[in-house]
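Inputs:
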Amino acid sequence: MPTASARVGHERRFRKRRGPGPGSRRRAPRARCGALTDDAKRELDQRLAAHPRNLQPAVARESDAARILERFVQAAEAADVTVARLSSADAVPEAVAGYLQSHNLPPRLRLSPGAESYPWERVPLVETSRGAARGEDRVALTPALAGVAETGSLVLESGPDKPTALNFLPEHHVVTLRASELVASPEDVWDRLRAAAGGGSLPRTVNLITGPSRTGDIELTIHLGAHGPRALHVLLIEDQG
Amino acid sequence: MAHLDPRDFKANARAALADRQLSDALSRMSAGLVPKRADAVAALPEFDALRDRAREIKDHTLANLDHYLEVFEANCQATGGQVHWCGTADEARSRILEICRAADARTVTKGKSMVGEELHLNPFFERHGITPVETDLGEYIVQLADEVPSHIVAPAIHKTKEQVSDLFERHHGGPRQEEPEAIIGEAREVLRQRFLDADVGITGANYLVAETGSSVIVTNEGNGDLTQILPKVHVVIASIEKIVPTLEDATTILRLLARSATGQPFSAYTTFSTGPKRADDLDGPEAYHVILLDNGRSAMLGTEFQDMLRCIRCGACMNHCPVYQSVGGHAYGTVYVGPMGSVLSPALVGLETTKHLPNASTFCGRCEAVCPMRIPLPRMLRAWRERAHESGQTTVAERRGLRLWAWFARRPALYGPGARLAARALAWLGRDKGRLARLPFAAGWTGGRDLPAPEGRTFQEQWRKDADGIRTGRS
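Outputs:
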């Protein structure tokens, strides 16, 4: 493997374009400049193409679905997420209505256009609309691509029907997550995203969201709801077994 | 207060030590962040093994930095992003200004970025008629106070709640809020409108991922996300060493970052941004620019300071540093502060103005012990001290003192008896209390603390005795 002292091509690039940089007055060893050999370059490109996993903590290598679910709930709750476990997707409207009521929120909900169609007719008093975020929306519901058990994170990606600002502008963020979409580690998420991209690029934005917005900037005490949502509520749909 | 100079470190430090409000704020920091990190680290059995792996990843990346940067550039361009190679801070500022002018920008929102501080972007924007708005709460407080951050993770760590109440009352026109929730709510409301009004959003990057051409930010407030989603243009300012090869490599370092910085297993928002919004996306920026800033870093490659380029800006070194804990960040007078700053600043702005900083260390080694990237900070501080000495930047008294000591040290026949005499004399002087409150020629040292009195025998005497003991089987 080439060492740093072997070459710094980009340094020459900077020099070539701009003349000596601010660091050039120091005694930088000249001998290390040199081009990458074809073999070395192939090795680096292979590493990029193979993107091998590094050492993962044991918890990130869990494969048992039940333990992944338990770990997710535990890690999410530790990050101040509230989790409601639903036995089916049909239970989503009532669960949302209950959430709005228990938090004294007006019965209005902004839905991500990418959210599945739930039987909203069951809660006729809740007014739903679909679309990108507006300044006045207080509660948004968006679907998660996946949940990460290791960290308790929700994975939300942007797309033609998945506006990102809905994850950040409203005060309350409700996320639907199917238990079958739970994975052990962020590495599992990357594999899924790569498969979905099929050789193309990642979605414009991929958010790993681990709890509501928070700040420690006032005397290092943690307070929730700095700029993003004050509360993050997960509706975990247990569609397995 | 606002803009201190590293050349005045000694005076700055003296003033900081006398500041009661500051020492209250700093003791809160060590009482809060140090045990939080310790708990988070203890909860992950693989932490040390992950540190080893993260060091390998970064060393590999730095050894092939040019290649990975070019791969990043190609992949970023493939998604419609634009990459700007900037050798100097001046160049980066002009590029950013061109981008803002092209977008006809009046207001620019900013997520927290140390490279933004390094570029002194706020005064630059103001000079060019653009209003910069810091959106991280700590940065916003510091901006209102016309100060600079005193910590790389918690910029307003030196401010008490009362000082923030005063600032907000003065700038937002009251009523004065006393409770933290109300203070934060006020900032949320004021900044919400700024997010919606901004023409350009600027964020830093915790990483750039070569494989995907993405930039990554790690935040807790969500301000960095609103900064990049709502305006038409997203500009990422990143220094070249932020690059990692793959998403897997970024993940390994992510496992260390939040634990080391705030004691969280994972920060609230970890966001991967790749190019501008796609044609049919409902929101997101229409243009995505990445400013790749060198500004002295490539000159560190292949030198004894290369390891510093592994730094992920977690702040653990300063949180654990007895010097930082006593004087805070402003005393350093540089953008990067604490142990990592004392190593990085001389490389970025030159040793001439920063020669005191490598001395702002007791060499206790805690910075290296907690560094998630295993950066040998004390070794590099020592290297800067050597350079300062070699280039004649130490004081005449220091150099004469060292020369005198060296003269004796090279003459054992004089040095041995001399040291024995001094050890016995000092032991006799301090015989009552076991310590000395005053000592000729060392008032600078004994002015602040007592010197423990020697036990009466020199190291060499004890060595000779113990070595004899070991040879003859005693002890």
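Remarks. Residues 60-237 of chain A form a domain with the Rossmann fold fold (CATH 3.40.50.10420). Chain A has one domain: 60-237.
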